[in-house]
Predict the 3D structure of the following.
Amino acid sequence: MGKRSRRDRMNELTVLEEMKGLSCQLTWFLKRFEDCIKYRRNRGHLRTYVEGQLSALPRKSIEPIALAAGTPPRTLQQFLERYNWDHEAVRRRVQQLVAKQHAAPDAIALIDETSFSKKGDKTAGVQRQWCGSRGKQDNCVLTVHLGYAAGNFHALVDSDLYLPQETWHEDRARCREAQIPDHVVYRPKWRIALELLDRATHNGIRFKFLVADEAYGGVPDFRDEVAKRGLLYVVEVPRSVAGWVDTTSLEKRCAQGRIPHPKRVETLWKRGGPSWQRFHVKDTDKGPEVWEARVVRFIPGPNGIPREQCWLLVARHVLTGEMKYFLSNAPQDTAPEVLLHVAFNRWHIERLFEDGKSHIGLDHFEVRNYQPVIRHLILSMLSLLFLVQQTHRLREKKSPLDSAPSPDGYRSAA
């Protein structure tokens, strides 16, 4: 081999110094969680697990993490499965750190779910269902998540396991086999999302807006509950959502006891209609992404019964023609570009899932019982928070999380 150049040696020293710096940063970061983990031995296991998730290991499940650290895999498995430490306190501390260090007046709550393909029928919550990571019906576990976005910062701040009703909730013997506590029961995913939201706000996180896809936004009770919590939602809804855009006429006809038939949002304005406004939504590696939007006042009518007036946002991609529909309870004087900006901030949660799975092994868990699954989700939030914070600290240097684009403005592209 030839001699290394002076530049190569300097680059190597820079990398070594950066690695040493990150190790020190991780030490200080994990000190914030020491009171959540009473025994020093378990604090060491915490560091081993987090370092493994942050490492370059191709597979970040218990065995390769343990072997790389010179720890018996059985020991690290017991750390997740049985050892005595307060994972709920770790969850709270993650939320408290985000609340203290990244508070912002326009923070956005991000609601979404993700799936993990699993073999067999022993992993808590597993069943054959739609698996987004595979793009088809498959055997998988599904989890619901709450993300936090403020400016260009984002983090996962809570997660929970979805327990299917027929295959798990109604089979308590199967639940006991997977060590699922009796108080853990079936809840619709939108109910889980509200629980995550309440837990985060109780621990000090403050949101102004909330975004979610149509699986959540299409549930009227979910929208109502979000509004009761004082949040402004901009949620995607199915094209089948029906209601009325002629709000003045509707009020008069309702007063006369004659409620007109509601129209599905996909059938509105077959001819004419409000003018399209063009907006530059974000920059991507393929160039600027531009959408056209129509924004009008709208009264949704589940079961043909009018509800409170809100905003209807209809967005159309200028190149593909893809259509998206959103409802929002934002004030009547809210500018269209604000609604569009908030609506398209869902990219943050998608990015968090991508980074969690590609960089820290969010989907690499091989434990089966309930508690270690929950503990893995919580530790993954912790690891991802550290990774995001360090990426921001070192963002002048190229890093894995710097490669994807972020929204730029939501300015008019007309």
Residues 88 and 312 are 39 Å apart (CA to CA). The two ends are 58 Å apart (CA to CA).
